[in-house]
């Protein structure tokens, strides 16, 4: 069973505001249906928007995306742990900071145009939903680490496939 170290109990009446804001990615995870898809789309749109407003070099875009994915992961682990505990669920669907981190990884090294943004989104969602080995096994890590790391791994798989596809197409 995933994240076996989170105490499953009745949902808490109190909510840790910062953790819920980060964990739900400022409410994207509260949208229905498919909150994970909304979290992924939000991350992709922020990446695309930032790239097209600031016009960074490809290297600067990759560095910025890497930093954003790292921050999302490092802050997402404790946030996901707290939200899961307060929700009384091991891996609540409304926690989407994991999708944000994974989606950003999937977008690394891609040009900031619509075809590549959509490619990164579709590949990430494919691997996040399918969860091929070793992605599913990472869910077994404790608490927020398990919540986050399966999506990080799905993002890495999407990154690898997107790079292969873009190099084959060129």
Describe this structure in words.
The chain has 170 residues and is mostly helical. It has helices at residues 17-23, 35-54, 58-87, 97-107, 114-130, 135-138, 143-169. Helix 4 (97-107) packs parallel to helix 7 (143-169).
Strand coverage percent? under 5%
In the predicted model, the low-confidence regions spanning at least 5 consecutive residues are: none
Helix content: 55-70%
Q: Radius of gyration in whole Å, from Cα?
A: 16 Å
On the 0 to 100 scale, the average pLDDT is 93
Q: What series of H and E elements makes up the topology?
A: HHHHHHH
Number of helices: 7
Q: How would a textbook summarize the main sheet? A: none
Q: What's the number of extended β-strand segments?
A: 0
Roughly how many Å apart are the termini? 43 Å
Shape: globular
Quick overview of this protein structure:
The protein has 170 residues and is mainly alpha-helical. The chain is built from seven helices and no strands.
Lay out the secondary structure.
Layout: H1 17-23, H2 35-54, H3 58-87, H4 97-107, H5 114-130, H6 135-138, H7 143-169
């Amino acid at each position: 069973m995933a994240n076996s170290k989170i105490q499953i109990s009745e949902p808490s009446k109190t909510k840790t505001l910062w953790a819920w804001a980060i964990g739900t990615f400022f409410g994207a995870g509260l949208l229905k249906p498919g909150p994970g898809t909304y979290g992924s789309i939000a991350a992709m749109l922020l990446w695309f928007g930032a790239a097209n407003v600031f016009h960074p070099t490809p290297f600067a875009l990759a560095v910025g995306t890497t930093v954003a994915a790292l921050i999302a992961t490092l802050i997402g682990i404790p946030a996901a742990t707290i939200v899961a505990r307060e929700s009384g669920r091991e891996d609540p669907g409304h926690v989407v900071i994991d999708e944000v981190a994974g989606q950003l990884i999937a977008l690394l090294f891609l040009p900031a145009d619509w075809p590549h943004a959509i490619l990164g989104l579709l590949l990430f969602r494919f691997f996040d939903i399918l969860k091929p080995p070793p992605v599913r096994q990472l869910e077994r890590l404790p608490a927020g680490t398990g919540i986050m790391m399966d999506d990080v791994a799905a993002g890495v798989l999407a990154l690898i496939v997107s790079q292969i596809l873009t190099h084959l197409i060129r």
